[in-house]
Amino acid sequence: MASYLVIPIKSSVGSKQRLAAGLPSDVRQLVSRALASRMVRCAAEGWAPSRVVVVGDDPELTNLCRRLGLTTVADFGDGQSDAVRAGQAWCLEQGATTLATIAADLPQVESSDLRRLWQMADDLPVNSLALIPDRGGSGTNGMLVRPADRDVFLFGPDSLRLHFELGARLGLQVSLLDLPSLTWDIDRPEDLVPPEWPISEGVHPVVAWAREVAALGMDRNHLDPRFGH
Length: 229
What we know:
Strand order of the largest sheet: 3-2-1-4-6-5-7
Structural class: alpha/beta
Number of helices: 6
Largest sheet: 7 strands, mixed
Shape: globular
CATH class: Alpha Beta
Order of helices and strands: EHEHEHEHEEHEH
CATH superfamily: Spore Coat Polysaccharide Biosynthesis Protein SpsA, Chain A
CATH architecture: Alpha-Beta Complex
CATH topology: Spore Coat Polysaccharide Biosynthesis Protein SpsA, Chain A
Radius of gyration: 17 Å
């Protein structure tokens, strides 16, 4: 088995526009970069680094990936689906048989989650598509597909339903993956409240963590231990 992981990462500059009602521009950039740096560190620890590709052009994250031994490729497309396709092309050149992709903005992710996802990828039957839903049940935070060359990427509004329908049209067995810690993503102002946290408690911890990342600098490895790094 040759299971490869694609992580699409938008540039932190100008990203997370739908958070504009909840966070100012500079904090949105910090949140985006902090979430992405957390994901790539977890990927380097939870997956074989030689089988991970990060798609994006943020210079600081590119440098971080280089230090962690992760390959990066440029994102010349338009949106998450095209970014995943760019990563897919690199994976196929390496001989991938199963392709995994995961969103970069998942604050609860741990290295153990990616190790489990890797095992699921290795165990995935031929002609299968397995989807990771978001906590609202309409979006898609990640997926596994085998064979790795299938174009099944329709990220965006109502993507979970669209992925189910496309998978069925392509003759794939479609299922959901039970990975609760990968369902919380940060995209809209309402996502700033962690699962099961009262709104009155305010902004979720990733904002404070993002500021700590900025204060420490991307070259440091001693990030807040509360977040696993």
